[in-house]
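Pyrroline-5-carboxylate reductase
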Amino acid sequence: MADDTLPSIAILGAGSMGGAILQGLVRSGVAGALTATNRSAAKATELADLAGVTSVALEDDPDGNRSAAAATDIVLIGVKPAMVPDLLREIAPGLRPGTVVVSLAAGVTLATFASVLGDDVPVIRSMPNTPAVVGKAVTGIAAGRAATAEHVAVIRRLFETCGAVIELAEEQIDALGTISGSGPAYVFLLIEELTAAARAKGFEDADARLIVEQTFIGAAALLDATKEDPAELRRRVTSPKGTTERAIAVLQDAHLAELFGAATDAALARSRELAAGA
């Protein structure tokens, strides 16, 4: 086993986000033993062919979560926020000393984890996003009181297999979720709407998708390659008195800054509702 191989990992609830992390780990080549659980056999079957993954269907093995948590060094909690407390109560008795528990659940606080698991279990709260599937995630992590620098380092390394990692105070995790956590959906919505505009101008569906999607991919690649401020790159495309300037003026007149502020505020409010059990 390579020196940089991660400890054994269980992902309890390998749905959208948990599944993205799982695929990122598999693709990285540095994951150790991996176990993933899902409620249905159909979903478990989808993951069964991933290299090195033991995929467990809870409908076939009702003790699957307990068994997986008891046998691994890192346990990622990927179930829906409302289900987290019950899952923690289920696995708590079998956790081995030193096992690190990592939350993927939006709005569920470190205090909630400590109230069930106790103050001595190292817990790290995370906020990844779905580009983990292709190694381009942004993941924020916040450590609980029992988590040491060594625990944080190994969880950071885990998420770095899927993209970039930023360490935060817990108070910033929900805000991060409104930007990077939900952000891919904002980008996909923009792509949908610009594609609709292309269709309205006479392009066939396939051509409209190609034009728009490659434009977004190319713009992001240019930003990544040049490391320039996006405002500077925008200025380079926007010739004075040209067509782009006219289009940008329309978008700015729509008060995009206020719109994005309101959207992320709404997401943050919902995150706090989830934390309160609403």
